[in-house]
Amino acid sequence: MIVKDWCMFCGECAGVCPRNLIEVKESTLIFDESECRDCSTCVKVCPITALEKE
Ligand code: SF4
Ligand code: SF4
Is the dihedral of CA 8, 12, 25, 18 positive or negative? Predict the structure, then answer.
């Protein structure tokens, strides 16, 4: 997953990942890609299209 510069760290994507792989803290987004199943739920929920699948 690529996180674009315009991410506003709202945490929406972190809240919907069924595997809890995304953590948003202040101005940081941490993504544990080892367990990602490419479901795209996080990509679809981002209100400003700041996540992109690689
Ligand atoms: S939902 Fe989008 S803007 Fe919000 S933290 Fe996730 S990537 Fe960033
Ligand atoms: S694609 Fe699915 S499994 Fe991977 S981080 Fe996003 S919501 Fe989680």
Answer: negative
